[in-house]
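ok here's ANTAR domain-containing protein, seq below lol
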Amino acid sequence: MIQSPRVGVRPGPRTAHGRDGRCAVEVVGPQQGVPSTSGTSGTSGTSGTSGTRGRGDRRGPAERESTMAGLRRNPPGAREALAELEVVHAELRGADEDLRAADEELHLLRARVDGLLQRLDDERRLQDRLAGAMPVPVLVTDAAGTVREANAPALAVLRRRLVAVAGAPLAALVHEADQPALRRVLGDALPGRVQRARLRLLAAGPEVPASAVVVPLEAGGALRWLLVPDPPVPGSRPAAALVVAEALAELCRTPADAGLRGLAQRASTLAHRALPGAEAAGLVLGDPREPELLAGDAPLALVADRVEREAGEGPGLDAWTGRRVVRTDDLGADPRWPRLGGTRSGGVRSVLAVPVVVRHEVRGVLAVHAGAPRAFDEEAEELAALLAEAVGALAEEVREVEGLRTLAAQLQQALVSRATIEQAKGIVAARLGCDPEEAFAVLSRLSQATNRRLRDIARHVVEHPGEPLEQVLALPPRPT
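and the structure came out like this:
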């Protein structure tokens, strides 16, 4: 097989002033193995295609550039070799650009995956916090039913200490007649599958009938058991308690990015669904006369809030000021609120308003409404009070999470602003020939003269490094 000749370049002869700038081109044929040398007048020997095509050229960029410069000075004998080298150079440059683009895509993909993982982690943490804040018993077991965690209400209902509950099988805390239901739940547990059961808890005293909603957790097949004891009301309906338990479990699964408004809307919808007789539900956070946040799941709830606010009286306002549950069987005929008499009630007849209390302070009102009279009873009062207590605890947790997020965003902004200001100081110092402290003083004076934030001035300087500093003074002042 005939091999292509190799092309090489060596520096020209050394003079008293260094190299004379001429390059010698060596062309080695496939058979001879002897270099043929020429100066600037041209090259001798056989010219052919270069053997450097492809990825075999391991010379550095500076060496390749020197080779190409030498070949340009010796065009007659090296024109074809120069063309081959330029092709190789272009191929390598294109491959390098492709690698950089692929690397950027990988970094973007990694950042996206990290963001999704962080979001999932945030949601798990928030849901754990919400479950821990629940005013009803919550247990966490492993897949076999061994208790791993128990909140304070669970210990209070069971009348046991944590050391007596943690590590114990849940079967030891459940009535013998309910063991088949317990085994069914444990056996049918699947990711994403929510189960329901009626269980009698064996407390250190009388047994406690409760409705259980079981939610699988992602960590190792663990299960969260949310238990709602039956209301202490004669003739109470277990089905109603089970619906409330489901509503509380749904509240615990509030997405991490829902925020306070999302929680309020979710709470309104679940209260409407959970309380028997309700046709609408609404949640007011803050003073009902000047609400901080208002959510309703149906037009009737918004109408009820509006007519109360316009009249300056009503069940919601009384629940807020009196810190107690307020119920009316017929709003238009109730003498407690004469300004809402007759048609001025907006079609609302039955109202059940419950204060949302957090740490002994009223933070809002949860109200359910119906267009029919006598829609609510004592059992509805008990269940609504339980929902309102849960909503208050969850709202406090969400407020705290939102506060931490705001603080983190402010800290991040401060770090970014600091980096931008440092860059601007370097630009100003280089332009004016001063030290960084004097450059910072210049930026501060520009900030005061234009009534703009220092970080905005710094960002403008960084984004327009060649612009005269006098033009910064022409920036419009920050709106007040």
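fwiw The CA atoms of residues 460 and 472 lie 8 Å apart. kinda neat tbh
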